[in-house]
Every structure is written in C-alpha cells, then in structure tokens.
Amino acid sequence: MVGSDDFNSLPTPSPPPAEQKDPPMQWGVTKPLSNAGPTDVDIQRTKELEKFLVDSGLYESAEETAKREDVLDRLKKVVKDWVKELTRLRGYTDQMVEDANAVIFTFGSYRLGVHGPGADIDTLCVGPSYVNREEDFFYVLHNILDEMEEVTELQPVPDAHVPVMKFKFDGISIDLLYASISLLVVPDDLDISNISVLYDIDEPTVRSLNGCRVADQILKLVPDVENFRTTLRCLKFWAKRRGVYSNVTGFLGGVNWALLVARLCQFYPKANPSMLVSRFFIIYTLWRWPNAVTLCEIEDNELGFSVWNPKKNPWDRNHLMPIITPSYPCMNSSYNVSASTLRVMMEQFQVGKRICEDIELNKVQWSALFEPYLFFESYKNYLQVDIIAADVDDLRAWRGWVESRLRQLTLMIERDTSGKLQCHPCPHDYVDSSNQCSHCAFFMGLQRKQGEVIQEGQQFDIRQTVDEFRHQINSYMYWKPGMEIYVSHVRRKQIPSYVFPEGYRRTRHARPASQVDKASCEGSVERVSKRKKEVDVPDLEVCEKKRQSISPQKESIGALTETTKPEVVSRDKEFNDGVIAPNHRKHTAENSDNGCCNLSSGDAYSENNEKGSSPGGTCSNEASPPQLLHNTHKEELEPNADLAMVLKSGDGEKNVMRHVIEI
C-alpha cells in the first residue's frame, strides 16, 4: 500500500504535449488585461450584433464586390500602360519599355476588409524612380483619366498633406495616391512592408506609402482578424451615427478608429465582438489623454525620417489625443483633434458606455447604441459656412478646400477666446436640392465652456477670427471667379428645413426640471418668465416669417446678399467695438441675433440627416441653462435682418461675420 508521503515522493509524469499550455502571448506593448473568452451569453449577443449590422446594410453585395475587383484590374492596366508610354517617350530601350511597370496597392477600409456599400477605395500607385508625381502623375495621368468615358468627377489635390487624385471609375469612388520609389523596375510582388521601399524618397512619398504599410501592420498585430473586423465595422458605424467620424474636421477617421480597435483587441485577445464593443467604451472613457495609443514599440531608424516623440519634438507635445501608427516612421494619426472635438468624443464615449451597460442588463437592444445624434437639436447657436461656385465642378474643388480648412476655424476660435467658446463642427455638408446655384453649407455648434462663470453682458468678439479664416480660405491656389464663402451666426430657429431628414423640424420636448443647472439659473428665472409672457405668441409669427425669408428655397445666396446690403451698414455701427453701451442694453436683448448669441451646452449631429446644404440652420439644446433663454426677443427682427448682420457685400470682398457673441 502506498501512503500519501510515498505518493508525493514519486516523480510526477509530465502532461501530454497536447495539453501543455504555452505562456500567453503578449500582443502590443503591455500584457493583456484579460484572457477570458466569451460565455454563451456573449456568443448570443455577438450573433444579434452581427445580424443588426447585416440588417443595417453594412455589407456590400457579391455583385458590388465583383465590380470593385473589376475596376481595380482595369485601373492597374491604365497605370501600367501610362508608365510604359512614359518610358518609351523618354528614350529608354525596348527591353526597359517591356519591363516598365507600376503596381496598385489598396489600403484603408478596403484593405482592412471593413468597407461597406458605396465606400471609396483608397489606392496607391507605386511607380519607378523616373516617373514623378508633379508632372507625370498630376498632369499626364490626369489627362489620360480625363479622356476616359468611365472616369467622372476627376479632382486632383496636389497640395494636400498627402497628394491625391479623386475620381469615380465606372461609378466606384477612387482615391489614388502616387509614390515613386528608388527602383528602375517595380516588381509585381513588391513587398511594401519592407523598409527598403523608403530608401531615397521624400516626405510626401513616405506619407503616401504609409497608408498601405500601416494597414498591413494592423492586420499582423491583432490576435483575431475576423473579430477585429466585425468590431471595427460596428464602431465605425456607431461613430458615423453619433457624428464623430471625420478626420478632416477634427474627429477620428478610418485609420484612427482601426488603431483604437486594434489596441482593444490586444487588451482582450480572446474576446468576441460583443465583448469588445462594450469594453471599447470602458477603456477609452478611462483613458488618460494625452497618453498615446500604440500597437507596438516606437522605433527610430537610420533613415532619418521624423518619428513621433514628444520628449524630443516640442510640436508633438501639443497633440491632445495621440494615436500612433505602427509602421516606421511612426506618426500621430490624430493630430487634427482639437480641445473641442476631443470633448465631444469623450461625451459620446460616455453615452456609449451607458448604453452598453444597459444592453448587458438586457434593458435595451443593440439598435439603441446606434441612435443618430441630433446635431441640430443640440445647440442654441451655430456658425454656418455657406460656399458657392460657378458650377458643380468648381464647387467640388472649392468645397474640398474649405472643408480641409474648417478645423483651423475651430482652432482659431479656441485660441482667440482662451478656450471659453467651444465649437462642435458637423462632419459633413448639406445641400438644398431646391436651390439652383452650386452651393453647400457646413455648420458648427457653439457653446460656452462648461463650468465657466457667467458674467452679465459678457461677449465673444470673433469678427477678427472669422476675417482671418476668410483670408486663409481666399488664398486657395486654384480660386476661380464665382467661388464665394459666407460665414454667419444662426440660431436654432433659423436652421433651414433641408438639413432635416424629413424636411421639417422635429418637435422639441421640454427638458425635465431636474436637468436644469441650478447654479446657472440664479438671478435669471424671473427675467426669463417675464420675457416669455411678452413674446410667446408674436415670436411664433415672426419666427415663421424669418424662416421663410432666410430659407434658400425662397431665394439664392446671391439674391440674399443684395437684399441685405443696406442693413449691414446700419447695424454694424451698433457693434462698433464689440461692446454695447448701457443705454443700448434693451436693444441688445431684443436684437441679440444681430450680433450676440447666447451659448449653452450641447452635443453632436445626426447621421440620418441627408447630405445637403445652403444658408440657414436650426437646433435645440437640451442642456441649455434657463438664463440663456433671455434672447427670445431676437425673433422680433424684420426678415433677413439677422443674416444681414453677418454678411458683408458690395465691396468686392468675401462675406464675413460682423458681430460679437454674447453669453
């Protein structure tokens, strides 16, 4: 009989090799937060989530997939023929002409496998060293594409941070970059991830190559590619619905969201999509920005390209939400984020976190997470940027330039108001289909910084800020006659109906008294009550008149400018120095839309809103303090007076905002 001591003294046999567990692999720069896999409940929730994504139309049909592949094949042939022809014209040997080659790579959502119906394809053409970007790509290839019947909406953007040519090929949107590498012959099997492709090239070429290199690295650095794809597809859809998807306006674009989701997958390598979505909001509401999100160690290299390093580079210290690309040279992909847009995103992360908690408690379904954010019901005051051009082609180029500079307007307003006036840019433009002119409009929600002490009569004078922005816009290298820009301050009731999905404003529900900021109500409740009694009925009538007068459905921008010219001159005198004298206080209260807007808190925009645009605007702010309602008398202005106050015309200059903003 063997006793327990004897048993313990016996050698312990090694477990079978199949049962041996290797130490958990570390994904990323830290150990996983959890290696837990999904439960049965998590698996069921993931099935429900995937069904919701399919029902929402996020996956393209087999026919569209085949068409994309066909378009890419045809584009490859176009660029190969282009390079061969250039080789022949430059006197190279017949063998060189035969070997001459260019290769097409994809990146972005298409390369990552998360593109949806109608999405564009981000492409990169890699050519030999003797084919340059400035003349050969943006001139010769441009002309070749321009002569092709299947190519439409061709728009070169050579002065962009990453030079690009945009067009539609047989209805498929294409963004085409070009990189000339230090090879005479580009092989079909070129490994773009190899660092050798970066030898002897300039910074713009590095940036052009970086998209493909980053996409490849992301797919290598995530534990489960399919879980990554489903989670990313889900969160991109969420970001668009909540109005925080747009790199150009200061939010996050496709690569930014991909990097955030990839890091999340590294934290939870065995989690399935439903687990990852809920943990996304937990992780990034707790994230202590500006600590950087990185998928791997940031490595420097002897090639000498600038690498993100806040310890070494002073300019990198100003980045508010650094999300670092994983391939050399590592860059901050989210340098566009401003204090205002970071605030908006953090608010939306909190909302997502609360809804995911309710989903896990079976209180709501997945659809609740994707409710569109109602941008035009979230603020009391807006900036409206209207742009017009002579024709559709000019507007396309002009719109792209203005959109690329809108982030600067946000930054300048933050700078000139010491961060006390916050901007929330709407990520896309709007077009009024009833307007005959080539026109579109962008909107920005305005509010005072939460927690700021409100002083009676305090004003923000951003006229010089807007004027500086206007001069930046007018520096457009390809400006043509007819390209105009108008910047105006509009209140919620002035927002035109064409920005709403159904073509009309939603009825606002009164905010519960419990949501009112009691501290900010002191000294104002009595004043609000009195003014409400005085203007309730007349305000509705005047509001309807004004709504008709400023709607682009009634008159074009050009006509509106002419009719408002006399009013601009007379009203500007009252706001000469941005400060109203005491004996003008009654006039200010009654006509504050002439140049003063009360700012309150609010959120973002609705993805459901149809794209469109023109002058006008509306919105409601569920979080606006009652003391900010004292400007209801503004609606007593005669038709067009509000817009007249913010437009300047007749002197050959672009229209500019001519008023101050009061809190």
Structural class estimated from helices and strands: alpha+beta
Q: Name the average pLDDT.
A: 77
Strand content: 5-15%
Q: Strand tally, please?
A: 13
Amino- and carboxy-terminal Cα gap = 91 Å
Strand order of the largest sheet: 1-2-5-4-3
Radius of gyration: 28 Å
Please give the largest β-sheet.
5 strands, mixed
The helix content is 25-40%
Write down the overall geometry. Answer: globular
Features:
alpha+beta; single chain; 12% strand
Q: Can you tell me about this structure?
A:
- The chain has 663 residues and is of the alpha+beta class.
- It has helices at residues 4-9, 40-55, 62-89, 94-99, 108-112, 133-146, 203-221, 225-241, 254-267, 273-286, 339-360, 392-416, 463-473, 518-521, 525-550, 557-572, 585-590, 641-646; strands spanning 103-107, 121-127, 151-157, 164-169, 172-180, 381-389, 421-425, 430-431, 438-448, 459-461, 484-491, 612-613, 660-662.
- The strands form 4 sheets. A 5-stranded mixed beta sheet has the order 1-2-5-4-3, sandwiched between helices.
- Helix 7 runs parallel beside helix 9 (254-267).
- It is globular and about 80 Å long.
- The model is unreliable at 1-23 and 509-656 (pLDDT under 50).
